[in-house]
Amino acid sequence: MSAESLGQPTDQLHTGAHIPLVGFGTWGAGDEHQKVADAVRTAIKAGYRHIDCAELYGNLKEIGQAINECIKDGTVKREDLFITSKIWNTNHEPQRVAESAALQLKVTGLEYFDLLLVHWPCNWQHTGSWCISSLHRRCVAHTDTALLC
């Protein structure tokens, strides 16, 4: 069932797609990825249709497994879900955006994201590794990279 058929508020995007205004976030579980998967399954079964994830969170595989299980068991159809993901700060260069999106789709086992966002509107130099949490102070701003050309 879609968000509209469940009585959830949505808004129409310029593409014509409808985005559920209430989403289920997947940040903050630390290394307890299985708990995130269980929470996503429970959220979908409870009626959430907007799932928010990101490459930074480190739990895309488990989120994808939970979503795909719910699709396979008939709880929901893929077209009834609105999946948002995000491109991390070190991947804002145009070729890296495409690479990051493709990798995220592969990891989740999904065919598409409904919305792909810039995680934070700041560009960091791509070093081949993540710059997160306590490592932020070592990240190098990359100011000549345009945001999602």
Summarize the SSE layout with pairings.
Layout (H helix, E strand, L loop, with lengths): L9 E3 L5 E3 L3 E2 L7 H14 L3 E3 L7 H13 L9 E6 L6 H15 L6 E4 L31
Helix pairs in contact: 1-2
Q: Which keywords apply here?
A:
single chain, 149 residues, alpha/beta, two-stranded antiparallel ribbon, 3 helices, 6 strands
What report would you give on this structure?
- Helix 1 runs parallel beside helix 2 (60-72).
- The chain has one domain (10-138): NADP-dependent oxidoreductase domain (TIM Barrel).
- Helices cover 28% and strands 14% of the residues.
- It is an alpha/beta fold and 149 residues long.
CATH-defined superfamily: NADP-dependent oxidoreductase domain
Unreliable spans = 133-137
> So what's the CATH class?
Alpha Beta
Spatial order of the strands in the main sheet? Answer: 3-4-5-6
What is the gyration radius calculated from CA atoms?
Answer: 16 Å
Distance between the termini: 35 Å
Shape: globular
Mean pLDDT: 85
Beta percentage is 5-15%
Alpha-beta content class? alpha/beta
Named CATH topology? TIM Barrel
Report the sheet with the most strands, covering strand number, pairing sense and barrel closure.
4 strands, parallel
CATH architecture: Alpha-Beta Barrel
The helix fraction, in percent, is 25-40%
Work out the count of structural domains. 1
Q: What's the SSE pattern? A: EEEHEHEHE
Number of helices: 3
Total DSSP E strands: 6
